[in-house]
Specification:
Layout lengths: L14 H10 L9 H14 L3 E5 L2 H11 L7 E5 L5 H7 L4 E5 L21 E5 L10 H11 L2 E5 L7 E2 L2 E2 L6 E5 L12 E5 L2 H11 L23 H12 L1 H19 L5 E2 L7 E2 L5 E5 L5 H10 L15 H7 L7 H7 L2 E4 L7 H17 L2
Helix pairs in contact: 1-7, 2-7, 3-4, 3-6, 8-12, 9-12
The structure holds pyridoxal-5'-phosphate.
Length: about 375
């Protein structure tokens, strides 16, 4: 049998999208210009917010929000360790201390019931992450935030187009961020967008991404310390063409997830992603969990040897060596998060993953879990 190679992720770019990017090269606008404004309008429409500010990455967007909300040294923000490192690094950039709360074992999102135990007089905000494209329980989180007068930053970098009870991810925080790295649902190469309903946050985000320049002022009117976190026209042209296909892309991903569920749900020891009523997942990655007693790392290796890319999503942030050094985190700090993280495995997942490949992955996984018990 011919050996397969199945990547973990693969962007889905059409000829129409290639042409849109080429067309930008015939205009004088390569950095900020009209494509960005159109793209921002579309992103705001997806989130149902008044404003959107396109930036150079998801990480840049999160950093801007932390700065724009005035968080700094001495402040604490409650967030999740079961995430990509950027959701917590954006706090360290400003000297803010991330305080990690436990996750819900089914949804893998921050558990609202475990937030209040982490609140101290220094707590200024909550930063939930919509992990793997599943919206966190923003209503419960906002209720806690209201009671304790905290800000809420939504890391929606994995969740464009997701919703809970019909409310889009990105709508309920003070500000939220989407991201477009090539493994995300839609891509611009690099890029991200801040969305918000708050006019002051919007104004600040626009100046912070552009070297602290004042709105409507001259090129050398820098009114504050800012960054070069600008987006560019080539990326915006790609993003605009991609976001026009967002519904189609999310449907394709939903179908791939359904096929996986069908093929995998019969395999003993394998747990497919949890389903909740009223929640629309925007499928980012497809992550299974292995029953305790199955060696996750050996399973991963077994699949990789058969040409199937897979990764242990996520390694808890608080267990990374520099987090241990900087924050004094230790093994055992978050028993539930650590237990879950030892059992998760992200399988290949992209729009055009074929049923034949899914069947192959399922049969290799069935062998692997028998072999790795
Ligand atoms: C992708 C991602 C980001 C942002 O990543 P960039 O590569 O900077 O665009 C932030 N948080 C989470 C949870 C992510 O998955």
């Amino acid at each position: 049998m011919k050996k397969r190679t199945i990547p973990l992720a693969r962007p889905d770019i059409t000829d129409h999208e290639r042409q849109k990017v080429m067309a930008v090269l015939h205009t004088p606008y390569l950095s900020m210009g009209p494509m960005i404004e159109k793209f921002e309008e579309r992103v705001a429409a997806v989130a149902g917010t008044r404003y959107a500010v396109a930036v150079s990455s998801g990480t840049a967007g999160l950093h801007i929000l932390v700065r724009a909300l005035g968080l700094g040294a001495g402040d604490e923000v409650i967030t999740t360790s079961f995430s990509f490192i950027a959701s917590s690094n954006c706090l360290l950039f400003e000297g803010v201390k991330p305080v990690f709360a436990e996750i819900d074992e089914e949804t893998l999102n921050i558990d609202p019931a475990r937030i209040e135990e982490k609140i101290t007089p220094r707590t200024k905000a909550i930063l939930p992450v919509h992990v793997f494209g599943r919206p966190a329980d923003m209503e419960a989180i906002n209720e806690i935030a209201r009671r304790h007068n905290l800000k809420v930053i939504e890391d929606a970098c994995e969740a464009i187009g997701a919703s809970r009870r019909g409310i889009p991810a990105g709508k309920l925080g003070d500000g939220a961020v989407f991201a477009y790295y090539p493994n995300k649902q839609i891509t611009t190469g690099e890029g991200g967008t801040i969305v918000t309903d708050n006019p002051e946050l919007y104004r600040l985000a626009r100046t912070l991404r552009n070297q602290g320049r004042s709105e409507g002022g001259g090129w050398f009117d820098h009114e504050r310390l800012g960054f070069n976190y600008r987006f560019d026209e080539l990326s915006a042209a790609l993003g605009l063409a991609q976001i026009e296909r967002l519904d189609e892309i999310l449907e394709k991903r939903e179908r791939v997830a359904e096929k996986y569920n069908r093929f995998l749900s019969e395999i003993p020891g394998v747990r497919v992603p949890h389903r909740e009523p009223d929640v629309k997942i925007s499928w980012f990655v497809y992550v299974i969990r292995l029953e305790e007693g199955i060696d996750r790392d050996r399973t991963l290796h077994y699949l990789q040897e058969r040409g199937i890319s897979c990764k242990p999503y996520f390694c808890p942030i608080h267990l990374l060596p520099f987090y241990k050094r900087e924050l004094g985190c230790q093994d055992g700090d978050l028993p539930l998060t650590e237990k879950v993280a030892r059992t998760t495995l992200a399988l290949p997942f992209y729009n055009n993953l074929s049923e034949d490949d899914i069947a192959y992955i399922a049969s290799c996984l069935r062998e692997a879990v028998e072999y790795c018990r």
